[in-house]
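Dear support,

Our group has been running a series of protein-ligand predictions, and this particular one with magnesium ion is the one our PI (initials K.S.) wants archived with full inputs and outputs. We had some confusion internally about which version of the output was final, so please treat the block below as the authoritative record. The input we submitted was:
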Amino acid sequence: MDRPMASWEEGVVDLARKLHPDVDIADAGTRTDYYFLKTTAEPERSAMHDAMKQPGLYRTLNAVDGSFDAFQDMLDAGDEAFICSTPSLENPTCASDKLAWLDQRGGRQVTERSVLTFDKTIILGDALVDDKHEIHGAHTPTWEHVVYDSAYNQNTPGPRLRNWQTWRNQIDPIRRTPRNDFRSREQRPFTVVWDMDEPIVHWYDDIIRKTRADNPGIRIRPKEEHLRWELPSFLEPDELEAITRTMNTPGVYKDLTEVEGTRQAFFEMLDEGIEVFIGTASALDNPTCASDKLIWLNDNWGSDAAHRAVILQDKTILDADVLIDDKPKITGRFQPVWTHVVWDDPYNQQSPGPRMTDPRNWREIVYPLREKWEWERKQAA
Ligand SMILES: [Mg+2]
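Confirmed final output from the archive:
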């Protein structure tokens, strides 16, 4: 997103010049290091860094010429297209601003195709258009890197996109190449993704408690009476309106209370060599939800865990083996490659499949799935 779709460097340079008019700031497009903060001299370095951390920066960026048209053209051509972007933990509003920016420029249907992740290798795809000079992560990627031409990636091999008007020249050959679907599955570690609302934080109990406190005159039913997933299908109109108001309150996702035992399970999995990520949707009508989720993880579980967060609306794009999630039925643009482990809640009692009632017993559920995965890998080899 930054640089291929949003004029990030231009935006940072403009803001740095505005905030630090006395500092000499080089023009956008002249930096030959992807990580230019490491090679830029003071005081320019600090001025640029300061601009990068400013709340609101990511809302103000200009769209790169032709990027949204190309995105729509791909969808019209019958391709699946998603936007995959790395949020900044240093900028407190980056994640939410990126989603708001997509909403503004492309509409909700584009935002629903967004993935904010620090690791792009766990996202399934055939081609990734990216300006970064090299892209690594937990997995061998399923996609081919199409290099979005920039001053700092001139030595990166592979197909090269110079502007969006000619995207077919790079993408069509990849589409025509027969590919082993999701070939990386044989070459990567066993991977578990935890949903956040309910498995990690007490979403229902906290939202209900806050809604009751703010609306003493309205009956707000307890979680035990939530026997279905879709709130409008069973809540009274005033109850639904009150709960929706709470859900959309800025900051509410920063204050959710932690579920006991999941943090320990998460880090035990990592210790045992399992790749673990947190895959969570953003409440798109809450203007700070995405950023608040990252801040919550960073404050409560630490920066290692926050860097394992993936904020996305469609979890079927995840290249994982297990998804632990309370949603009764998880669908999206793809046939999932993971097994859904149902996080036990009143509204998912009809959901089939393995079920987690206590995260401290994660091995009872995950070990058999990993054994099956190892056996299947041996059969395929
Ligand atoms: Mg959930």
